[in-house]
Amino acid sequence: MKDSVTRRGFVRAAAAGSALLAGLRLRRAPSALAADADKPAALGGTPVHQGSWPKWPEWREAWEPKILEILRSGNWYRGSGGGSIAEFETGYAKLLGAKRCLGTASGTTALITALQAIGLDAGDEVIVSPYTFIATYNVILLHKALPVFADTDPETLTMDPATIESRITDRTRLILPVHIFGMPCDMDPIKAIAKKHGFGVVEDACQAWLAEYKGQKCGTLGDLGCFSFQNSKHIPSGEGGAVTSNSDELIDRCSAFHNCGRSVGTFKGSGCFTRGSNFRMQHYQAAMLVQQFDKLVKETEIRRQNADHLIAGLKDIPGIEPARLPENSRAVWHLFPMRYDATQFNGLSHDKFMRALRAEGIPCSSVYGEQYNDGLLDEAIASRGFKRLFPEKRLKEYREAFKDLKGNRQVCATTVGLSQNLLLANRGDIDHIIEAIRRIHAHSAKLV
Ligand SMILES: Cc1ncc(COP(=O)(O)O)c(C=O)c1O
User: Fold this and answer.
1) Same structural domain for residues 279 and 316?
2) pTM > 0.90: yes or no
3) Which of 122, 111, 100 is nearest to 249 (CA)?
């Protein structure tokens, strides 16, 4: 501990200027040794972190009897009612403080279902966060609707509410904020705009299990919330998803749609069947999820404590800023994002910074790029269906507006993300992340 404090002290001095550093080297041999020991791994030094990071996902033998019971019963499919899926739905709704929950096959199918239930139709427009996993764009396109991007706030990395109203047209039907990395969007102004214009709000909470905004869990703030339980998620079942809501009517609509259109509860559709698909969860998936509820709660707390430690430790490194959360909210950190300012690192590029960090044994990535420039949307709006549904002028304006997403461009160019499993490591390992970044900062001139 004492050693590492001494070394960090030296690193701080080194960061203060190369002249001072040269002076220290000349006069004090031990510091020269420390400087050598502190050499970045990218320049041939020893990596700060040499061990492994917590493995993800994790299997527990204790889960096996329940899973085997389901597999041996032959009762695998939700059609038979009750069972683990009902147990999951009741338990997850309770965990979130939502009135209802519906299990689905994935987060993507949860979103498709929610958009159908709220009445999105071909030729509509949805105002959505551009900074997200590609599924959020795709589910809107699958409904033959247009994903219209609000800009990203570079401080929060989430939808900037101040950029929503200028995107509204007479085709806008709903707002789809994404609680990216488990960081809640600023929902009050988003909901106020939705209310003013009569729009629905569907939350993409696929990365935000147990995240909180002003005392309420994400996924319970809009009309419907959607979750993913894919392999990398904090509560994984390989694939899996859920829709949550405080409206019986909306969840009954979701339930009908996801079950081949079989009318259910308050929702009768136009008779026995309504439009629908098969997006059902399976019992063994539900049993895996139910058995992870307590683990999710405990690990969320660990990730939060380690994120707080990281934020405190990074505070005095210029050029590294954590994302700002809305007042009175709590993130769950599916990724821990850092906002990187190359000007504070002697112009060391975002890419080279990440390479240097990886060399120190700290896995990291830039996460999402400007995906709207990657061809998916060009292909969609050039399709027969979209050309029939939208005036040419609208599609042209729509495409041109991507260049105005300045906040999002900045976020894509400067974010450095650490994946959630790192936040389950012990304190010593979390300190390695801080130390590695200090080291890179101190030697940035040589790393450029
Ligand atoms: C923000 C976001 N939305 C939607 C999805 C889609 O979920 P799934 O992979 O379970 O279909 C994901 C999954 O990674 C996601 O992160």
Assistant:
1) no
2) yes
3) 100
